[in-house]
Design brief:
The protein has 225 residues and is of the alpha+beta class. The protein has 2 domains: 40 residues, no CATH class; 160 residues, Nucleoside Triphosphate Pyrophosphohydrolase (Alpha-Beta Complex). 24% of the residues lie in helices and 34% in strands. The protein is built from 4 helices and 10 strands; from the N terminus they run E-E-E-E-E-E-E-H-E-E-H-E-H-H. Strands 4, 5, 6, 7, 8, 9 and 10 form a 7-stranded mixed beta sheet that branches. Strands 1-2-3 form a 3-stranded antiparallel beta sheet, with no helix packed on it.
Length: 225
């Protein structure tokens, strides 16, 4: 049972879901591109349980359904005092889907036999040259970018980065140029700057926005304890 306007208690009671309203059958692949992102389209027949009405529906999957990762890289400088806020890595990406640049957290697809933590660590290194230790990677939650049509799962990983990690990455970037051709203009910004960018509509990537919202909620909950 969810909370109603007449409830005075802010705690949301546990929900016991009943029988799904749709019966799914005859699911099969109608398109598959085995190259690049291994993009697959499924078609199924859905039947409304209460009325018996049927319709066709399509869902999609990439990378054979392996879990991807988005990186919230957090820099806590050893040279600052306890009152100095941490900074977070945000970067410009070019996306074919929008034909535009946009601010995003680093992210990417998982590889076979790779944990979510390993995916996050690898993606951060590939995009920025920063090679953070695996023990500094903390997967805080999994999300689905669009439950209406996308099957894929994305791990939100918080990665603690030090000044030494950044210094070690600079020679790599100086030898090879940008470590990822999609990424330009990476910047470390504090939380207030990120909030202002979101409020001003400068960040429009849904995965980045969802990841930051979860991070903010967890930070707030930790401070209230």
């Amino acid at each position: 049972m969810m909370r109603t306007d007449n409830d005075n208690d802010d705690v949301v009671a546990p929900v016991e879901d009943g029988v799904p309203p749709l019966i799914v059958s005859d699911e099969h692949v109608v398109y598959r591109d085995c190259f690049a992102a291994d993009y697959t389209v499924f078609e199924c027949q859905a039947t409304v349980r209460d009325t018996g009405k049927t319709f066709r529906m399509h869902t999609t999957q990439v990378n054979d359904g392996r879990t991807g990762a988005v990186c919230i890289a957090r820099l806590e400088s050893a040279d600052t005092d306890e009152h100095t806020e941490a900074r977070y890595l945000i970067a410009r990406h070019w996306r074919i889907s929008t034909h535009a640049w946009g601010w995003e957290f680093p992210r990417g697809m998982g590889e076979e036999h790779e944990s979510a933590e390993e995916t996050a660590r690898r993606e951060l290194k590939e995009e920025t040259g920063i090679d953070a230790p695996l023990e500094c990677v903390d997967v805080i939650q999994h999300i689905h970018a669009d439950t209406g049509v996308l099957r894929d799962s994305i791990a939100i990983a918080e990665i603690t980065v030090t000044d030494a990690d950044i210094d070690a990455a600079r020679p790599v970037k100086s030898r090879t140029g940008d470590t990822d051709w999609e990424l330009r203009n990476a910047h470390w910004v504090d939380a207030n700057t990120l909030r202002a960018m979101i409020a001003d509509g400068e960040i429009t990537d849904g995965i980045t926005l969802a990841s930051w919202a979860i991070h903010e909620c967890r930070e707030g909950a930790a401070q209230r304890k």
